[in-house]
Write a structure and sequence with these properties.
Elements (H helix, E strand, L loop, with lengths): L1 H22 L7 H12 L17 H24 L2 H4 L3 H10 L2 H10 L12 H29 L2
Helix pairs in contact: 1-3, 1-7, 2-3, 3-5, 5-7
């Protein structure tokens, strides 16, 4: 249960960061496109020329949010798998940041190419800027893993 709470908490921190960026005029990810990709994946289609041009799937917005939070939980489980169960009782920032930053591989090498944006945003107008933004976003997620673990540790008996 602790891993689930940490994953959800870290994803909330990530989402709050994205909301701040959006208020500053920075384009952020569209959860409907994540849901669209997941919906097509369930039908056997992994890659798209352009996810925006691919047919919509029913409930794609909700599906996108579900996939987003499930991924956050999976990444929290990966952190505990790497750092060990002892990390849950004595959270430290190093492993959380390391795993958070490592998770940037998912968008750069799986999601972006499969959605038609190319490996590491290579088919976008500003690939380096997009990669650096993804790296910063995932570092924030790592910070969220650490902060959420501290909260869980503080409320756990």
């Amino acid at each position: 249960m602790e891993i689930i709470i940490i994953g959800i908490g870290a994803t909330i921190v990530f989402d709050m960061w994205l909301m701040l960026l959006k208020r500053m005029g920075v384009k952020t990810m569209n959860m409907a496109f994540i849901g669209r990709w997941a919906g097509h994946l369930a039908q056997g289609r992994f890659a798209h020329e352009s996810i925006a041009a691919s047919p919509a799937v029913g409930g794609e917005q909700a599906l996108g949010w579900l996939v987003h939070y499930a991924t956050g939980i999976a990444f929290a489980a990966a952190l505990v798998a790497v750092a060990g169960n002892g990390w849950l009782h004595a959270p430290s920032i190093g492993p959380a940041l390391a795993v958070g930053i490592a998770t940037v591989g998912a968008p750069l090498f799986v999601m972006q190419p499969s959605m038609g944006l190319g490996v590491a945003s290579s088919k976008t107008p500003a690939p380096l800027k997009n990669c650096l933004r993804s790296l910063a976003n995932h570092a924030v997620f790592g910070l969220g893993l650490y902060l959420s673990a501290l909260i869980v540790k503080g409320i756990a008996p």
